[in-house]
Amino acid sequence: MTGLAVYVGLCIALRRIPEYTYITQIVSSYITGFTLCGASMAINDYFDLPIDRINAPNRPIPSGVVSPNLALTLSIAMLIIGLILALTTSPICLLYAALFAALSYLYSWKLKRLGFIGNIAVSLCASAPFVYGGLTALAITNTHTNGGFLLLLLFSSIAFLANLGREVTKSIADIEGDRAYGVKSLATSYGARTACIVASIFYLAAVALSLIPPILDMVSHYYYPFIMFVDIGFIYSIAKLSRSLSRDTALRVKNTVLLLMLVGLIGFIFGGLT
């Protein structure tokens, strides 16, 4: 999804599907998003081993399928690949990629224990690929397009809010392990009900922000069916979580939101093309 988000950002910044002549840059930017996301996932699993032994014992490292050293090696390898490819796109792309790669590593190392601050860091990283796609578009065409970057920032903000809600929802599912290892999440600090209310606020904010592009006539009519499905899905997720604050429900909502974000990505690209 991160690689796809980069490509979506590229298309929206250009307001068109890029020409075949840019295939090298397109593939390079996609792999950059893919590898840097993979690097952050692997390093997160590496640092989260004690917590995952409680919250998710079937994951590769706590289950013994993958060793911690292998996860660390894989993370570093993907980090290097991603940064090298970012450099081949442009120095600005490298700087941007390196900044968010550092933030993702800092999250796994320290910020996760700070709870909501960590949620914000993860959500910034989740929304960053859209802007990276825009920077790639700027690097390969050296031109600005009318309204493309503004729409890109709106879509990036929607992704940020949706993912922030998802991270808070996840804290409800992870209460047991987080509490055992001193993670100061909203759920461990203020209770599952408060976390549910905060997550719902962010989901509703994402829904509200999704209405701005059509109100400002910034998207095509292809945007509507996708975003209606996503917005209804967010409202349904809020209702489902409000009815039950169990770990299983929080996990289901978390996974549902991830699917909704994927559908939203597709809506972004169809709606953002002219």
Q: Kindly, what is the distance between the CA atoms of the first and last residues, rounded to a whole number of angstroms?
A: 23 Å
Tally of alpha and pi helices: 13
CATH superfamily: UbiA prenyltransferase
- Give the ordered list of helices and strands: HHHHHHHHHHHHH
Give helix % range: over 70%
Count of the domains: 1
Number of strands: 0
Could you characterize what this model shows?
With 274 residues, this protein is mainly alpha-helical. The protein has a single domain, classed as Tetracycline Repressor, domain 2 (Orthogonal Bundle), CATH 1.10.357. 80% of the residues lie in helices and 0% in strands. The chain contains 13 helices and no strands. Helix 5 runs antiparallel to helix 6, helix 7 runs antiparallel to helix 10 and helix 12 packs antiparallel against helix 13. It is globular, with a radius of gyration of 19 Å. The mean pLDDT is 92.
Question: How do the strands and helices of this protein lay out in sequence?
Answer:
Layout: H1 2-14, H2 23-47, H3 49-55, H4 68-89, H5 91-109, H6 116-141, H7 148-173, H8 175-180, H9 186-190, H10 192-210, H11 212-215, H12 223-243, H13 247-272
Structure, briefly:
With 274 residues, this protein is mainly α. It has 13 helices and no strands. It has a single domain (2-272), classed as Tetracycline Repressor, domain 2, CATH 1.10.357.140.
